[in-house]
User: Fold this.
Amino acid sequence: MGSFAKLRYLNLSYSEFGGRISYQLGNLSQLQYLDLGRNYYLSGVIPLLQIGNLRQLRYLDLGGNALSGAIPCQIGNLSELQYFDLGGNSFSGAIPFQIGNLPMLNTLRLQGDFDVKTKDAEWLSNLHSLTILQFSSLHNLGSSHHLLQTISKLIPNLRELRLVDCSLSDYDIPYLFRFHSNFSTSLTILDLSRNMLTSSTFQLLSNISLNLKELYLSHNNFVSSAPLYPNFPSLVILDPSYNNLTSSMLQDDFNFSSKLQRLSLRNCSLLDRNFLVPPAFNMNFSSSLVSLDLSHNLLTSSAVFHWLFNFTTNLHTLSLYGNLLEGPLPDGFGKVMKSLENLNLYSNKLQGEIPTFFGNMCSLQTLDLLNNNLSGDLSSFIQHSSWCNRHILQSLDLSYNRITGMIPKSIGLLSELEDLYLEGNSLEGDVTESHLSNLSKLTSLDLSYNSLSLKFESTWVPPFQLRYLGLASCKLGPSFPSWFQTQSSLALEQFTIY
Assistant:
């Protein structure tokens, strides 16, 4: 690769390459764009002198790998660099002050156990073109108030600021947001996840964030013992997951943005009583919200479903997995949730027969009911639904319930299925090519731990290419199914037929 002397663009991201970054890349002196991000297995250090030879480079992404060691100071030679991403690695040592020699830099993402010093504020203050800044895992950032004040001075130009897992406390935040007026008119994305912030910071942010569109505050120490009165009028995405927001998050003193599209309240200790809505409750986002995550809370009853009926009209994605929901799903669910595309209800305690209204939800693409107590006959579920979504349903997971009966041949009506998981039930009978011949897009199939017999003609060639196949405890005999040899995409470690 080092012989491509005239190469200007090289993108090897998401390619699962491993080992060290080749020193030969230093020969590509005309390179302007280099993306080795999200390979996950690239390790070792960044080649020192070689990286400094790429003086034409404008875009450099090494994020999402397993790189370590120090960041080479030769980075300062790349005077044309505009985008620099080293996030998602394990760098250490000092941040080279030569980064301050990059006058064109508009995006900087760094992650590692760096030794943050007061002088780091000097090189950072030289980056006048920055619009995106991300520091992750700088655990002593809070102890450098001089550096926080420097970031505060940059905020008037920043559109995106992410300070994740930096051990920030409420005491540090005023140093970061000293210029409130500038902050309120510039920044649109703020991520302070995985710090040590409390409700005091939550209130402070609401006073200075008139134009914030995305706010991420997960994994902090917010405890809603007292009422909050936050105001985020422009928010499109709000994620305060993994905090204890039981008493205030869904009360009428919380002013949600009328533009809110995505709300994540995962693992917020929410209880059924949080969804017993008082008459004065004001839900501004009822028509704008398209994604709602209430997973891993303490919900047990149908109260949350009736809350949804009243206050959401355009949901596309709903996640309620990992709760304690019991009993059957209300009949009105299928009538009201007509816009749902993705529904995740796995790992609850839902009972009763699988509601046939799932097959009448015409926008549904993903249905996940894994690990519940649903019962009834699978044939009845398949045959008594209109399946108006048959041409868009892509994933159906009914694993580990108490479903009985045979798999009907009419399951082939769901011609767009890519994933079909039925393991861990009490299904019985034969499975033949007539069940699967119409499922040309199937990539994952699991029929394990039922009482099923596979009976295929020896000459049958499937219309699909599976990447995952589970047939544990199924009867395959008397001869080994010959159609397996046609599945060239099947990963060996994802093929179980015990």
